[in-house]
Prior knowledge:
The chain crosses the membrane at residues 211-231. This protein is 42% helix and 25% strand. The chain is an alpha+beta fold. It has a domain at 31-200: Jelly Rolls. The strands form 2 sheets. It has a 4-stranded antiparallel beta sheet with strand order 1-8-3-6, covered by helices on one side. It has a 4-stranded antiparallel beta sheet with strand order 2-7-4-5, with no helix packed on it. A hairpin with a 5-residue loop joins strand 4 (84-88) and strand 5. It is elongated and about 135 Å long. The N and C termini lie far apart (131 Å).
Amino acid sequence: MSRGLLLLVLLLVFGHxxxxxxxxxxxxxxxxxxxxxxxxYDFAVVLRASxxxxxxxxxxxxxxxxxxxxxxxxxxxxxxxxxxxxxxSPKGYLVAEAGEASGEIKFEAKETGFYQMCLSNFHNRFxxxxxxxxxxVYYESSDDMKRQKEEEEAKKxxxxxxxxxxxxxxxxxxxRLQSFVFHMWRHYNFxxxxxxxxxxxxxxxxxxxxxxSAAQSLVILLSGxxxxxxxxxxxxxxxxxxxEKPRC
Length: 248
């Protein structure tokens, strides 16, 4: 009880002096423990004319970083489907870049930190575009994961010498299956991007054909009316009288 009271008094006395920001709330936990996880994201973003949008994603050294993107639709005058994409390292160095309407950027992270992905629509001065993104990291070639797997295998050999090796085979098969499912999911997202692009292109072509058909129909009706009007003017006759007779 006395210890708890003494601690309360010290907190009340030094509370104002220790009210600054805490720089390291969990000193016993490294950034690997805090951020280790296979996060993947997929969403669409609209870039206005000459706009620049940047996103950040955490990656550890040795992980495989990937970014898939595709321009789904473009609006405005003199539109251009090209998109400028750059990926910078945590220290600000350029790691990869691309300038097509769709593509994939993939590389192995050389350092741990937040990698910056920037999308620039500077090709379109007067139009906006919608871009579908799919990015993340995975750990197939990670040294830490290999070392952890080797330690687990050694421990299993020591603790389970009497058991059948079927469990280990099933575990390896499940790991490979999980990797295959993950890559299938990536390819599925890319196919979904392409289907979305085809859908928006079909809607744009349908609107274009509808407006042009209406305009051509209006021109045809107007030209028919003008032809009929001039033909009637040719057959207009005036009634003749003794004073007013038709002239040759």
